[in-house]
Write a structure and sequence with these properties.
84 residues, mainly alpha
C-alpha cells in the first residue's frame, strides 16, 4: 500500500506496524537482536545453512539479513570467501 501511495504522489507515508516508511526502502532489522549481534531467525539460519547443505561443519558464514520490499519475488545473496 505504501508503494502505491508513493507512486501516486501521496507521499511521504508512514506505516501502522512499523512507524517509518518502508516502501522503496531497505529494512536492516527484521527481528530482535541477540547477544551475538545477529537477528534471531534470519541471520542465524543463513549462518548454518551452507554447512548443513554441503555436509561440511567447517564452513563458516557471516550473514546479515536485510528486508527489501519488492513487488514480485524473493532474493537471497551471498559473497563466498576462501581463507587460502
Amino acid at each position: 500500500m505504501q508503494s502505491a501511495a508513493l507512486l501516486g504522489g501521496q507521499g511521504p507515508v508512514t506505516g501502522e506496524v512499523i512507524p517509518k516508511q518502508i516502501g522503496f526502502n531497505c529494512v536492516p532489522q527484521i527481528d530482535v537482536f541477540l547477544e551475538n549481534g545477529y537477528t534471531a531467525r534470519r541471520d542465524e539460519k543463513w549462518c548454518g545453512r551452507p554447512a548443513r547443505i554441503l555436509a561440511d561443519p567447517a564452513i563458516r558464514v557471516n550473514a546479515t539479513a536485510v528486508r527489501v520490499p519488492v513487488f514480485f519475488g524473493h532474493f537471497a545473496g551471498g559473497t563466498p570467501g576462501n581463507p587460502r
